[in-house]
Amino acid sequence: xxxxARLDTLGRKHAALETxxxxxxxxxxxxxxxxxxxxxxxxxxxxxxxxxxxxxxxxS
Length: 60
Description:
Blueprint: H1 3-26, H2 32-56
Helix pairs in contact: 1-2
C-alpha cells in the first residue's frame, strides 16, 4: 500500500473515531472507559499519520 493510500485510510479511521467519540460524549449513559479507548486509538492513528507524513517529506 502506498503512503498516500495509507494516509487516506488512516484519515478515514480517525474521522470515524471522532464521530464515535462525539456520540459517546453526548450519550446519557456516558462510558468513561469507552471514551478513553477511543481517544487512545485516535492518538495512535494521529501518531502514525505524522510518522508517514514525515517519511513522505511533508510537515505534519
